[in-house]
Specification:
Length: about 425
């Protein structure tokens, strides 16, 4: 197709300005200028492989737009779904054909706007609206924890109802899980297994900030017959920066708030054979009263216990707490006599209970016990080095550490 008429118009304008000194108005306005006209209806000049308002289209089949004859050429195609997501496509060099290059979303409506121009350069336009069939099998994403206020160590979690094993599919899922956080925060998703992801920043969340996560997966093809479902977004309010350090060798606990030590408490931790785990733990919850029995954690015989416990702050799923232990006050600050928990006086435990919240950091050092597991016994996420954490991301694995376009895409600053 020749585009010489449009080129001729440009040359004519240039010559006219040079010879007459008439200025830009000779070409930039006027009723006869095709570029100044409102787009005409290009319905007779373009064809779609989908029918407007007809039967829902198969999302696995590409969307195609073609120009009819030599009267016009396609200059642009914008296909946007119900959620404002633009469908990527490719336009031929001649402008006679456009086709999508990624699968369409399932169970949505598309609005397709096609821009054209005729042989004189006049703009045309045609719009098509159609729907796609619902997904046969959906991938649900449930975010955690529950909405509320948390400490700076609280990871975000995403649980899938179906396993995702393929690397490309994992990257697609990860790219669609969008975290909004304060500017300057670097973070990444980490695949715990085929159905669970955790997100944490490189350092703790900034105190007094807001963090939210949402999914853009709805309708998106993840794998054969599996498309993303709608997911409920999640918002967390981050409180003070509370960091608790328990030194099992000195038998003292130090409580810091926003970088200031506000209390030092004598404690007892796990005795030999029941030593408290070393490492960073995140507060999982609080219970005013817990009946603690040894058999619930596999402790019997002469070590069996059955005790009423007050002001219990939980840090592992296996039963490690910080709690009131009035029976061991004589040992607190001097020796380790517990079965793994951190015990303190009732008065100190009540103060600790009132000043600690879910998501706060509780770190144990200098214990002869094992290290805290990264996953499976609470939130041990902070015990993994950042470089290794990034390797658990389908998007960041094998990339250079530091802020990159991928990092920034995964963690979008709030306005």
């Amino acid at each position: 197709m020749s585009h010489s008429p449009r080129l001729w118009t440009v040359l004519s304008c240039s010559l006219l300005v040079a010879s007459l000194g008439a200025g830009a108005t000779a070409c930039g306005s006027g009723d006869n200028n095709p570029l100044s006209a409102r787009p005409y209806d290009a319905g007779d000049q373009v064809a779609f492989n989908q029918a407007s308002g007809g039967r829902p289209a198969d999302p696995d089949k590409p969307l195609e737009v073609t120009a009819k004859g030599a009267e016009a050429r396609i200059t642009d195609v914008m296909a946007v779904d119900t959620h404002g997501r633009r469908l990527a496509g490719e336009l031929s060099a001649k402008g006679d054909r456009w086709h999508s290059i990624v699968p369409m979303a399932a169970g949505v409506r598309y609005t397709v706007t096609v821009s054209t121009e005729d042989q004189r350069g006049a703009p045309g336009q045609r719009t098509l609206v159609f729907g796609t069939t619902p997904a046969k099998k959906v991938l649900d994403v449930e975010f955690g924890p529950e909405e509320g206020k948390y400490g700076v160590g609280q990871p975000l979690t995403a649980e899938l109802n179906e396993p995702v094993k393929d690397k490309a599919a994992r990257a697609l899922v990860e790219r669609a899980l969008v975290v909004d956080a304060p500017p300057g925060v670097e973070g990444a998703w980490h695949w715990v297994d085929d159905k669970h992801l955790h997100f944490r920043p490189k350092d703790y969340w900034p105190a007094h900030s807001t963090v939210s996560v949402r999914s853009n997966l709805e309708g998106i093809k993840v794998s054969d017959e599996l498309h993303g479902a709608a997911s409920k977004p999640l918002t967390l309010e981050i409180g003070d920066r509370v960091e608790v350090t328990t030194d099992a060798s000195s038998h003292y606990l130090t409580f810091e708030r926003n970088g200031e030590v506000i209390n030092t408490i004598p404690v007892t931790t796990g005795k030999p054979g029941f030593s408290t785990r070393n490492g960073v733990k995140v507060v999982l919850g609080k219970q005013y009263f817990v009946q603690m029995r040894g058999d619930t954690v596999g402790i019997g015989g002469s070590e069996y216990y059955n005790l009423p416990v007050y002001y219990a702050t939980r840090v592992t799923w296996s039963g490690e707490y910080v709690h009131a232990a009035p029976w061991s006050v004589g040992s607190q600050g001097y020796e380790n006599v517990s079965h793994g928990c951190t015990g303190m006086s009732t008065g100190n435990a009540a103060w600790f209970y009132e000043n600690i919240t879910e998501g706060d950091i509780v770190r144990v050092i200098n214990s002869i016990g094992d290290d805290m597991d990264t996953f499976g016994n609470g939130y041990g996420d902070w015990n993994m080095e950042w470089k290794e954490w990034r390797e658990g991301s389908a998007l960041l694995k094998g990339t250079q550490e530091g802020r990159s376009p991928i990092d920034q895409a995964r963690l979008r600053p709030t306005v």
